[in-house]
Design a protein that fits this description.
With 236 residues, the chain is of the alpha/beta class. It has a single domain, classed as Alpha-Beta Barrel (TIM Barrel), CATH 3.20.20. It is built from 9 helices and 9 strands.
Amino acid sequence: MPEVSSIAANLVQVKARIQAALARAGRSDQVTLVAVTKTVDPGRIVEAYRCGVRHFGENRLQEFAEKRPQLTLPDATWHMVGHLQSNKAKRAVEWFDWVQSLDSLHLAQRLDRAAAEAGKRLPVLIQVHLGDEESKFGVEEHELARLVEGVAALAHLELRGLMVLPPYFADPEQVRPFFRRLRHLAQKIAEREIPGVTMRELSMGMSHDFEVAIEEGATMIRLGTALFGARPAPAP
């Protein structure tokens, strides 16, 4: 009998945990698993694809540029989940199917222009900064409404929802208020019925807290170590 790969085994466990969290929340919908491939080599990404993973997230354009020639994966969907500089917008539109980390109108305008040149409409999520961490990116809560209106006016972007990268807590229960807050923000935006804006997607939850995120309404979770194992320690 062939040996089951660690990724395949991890995926089975993750899927079971997703279904259990959905059941606890009384949800009958599905959650999109985005495999975050930061520092993951192309061979293991291909292995995850062969195990059935179809959504992948990258944090850095430069790292993805090095891997991309080895990743011919039919019907895979690629998400930009890391901070994106506006001068890299054209490349992001060329390489990615989604941008989850939209955090300014200037970036939105650059993405819209690049999408127009490419003849495509780009699904985006606005990253909201919840918490006091200066190292984290995202639009501040009090500026969110204005950014939503600005993105809604751009013809080649499709605003599908919100994303958050909350502070890290060892106890996932301490992250719950941040996930709940993002859901409430999305609900308020949806109630405004802005043409061209939907709040179908809430991208929240990572390897250590995705079950709590699902209980609070996540429709996308971004998992790295839960699928691929611990990342290698950075070189000294």
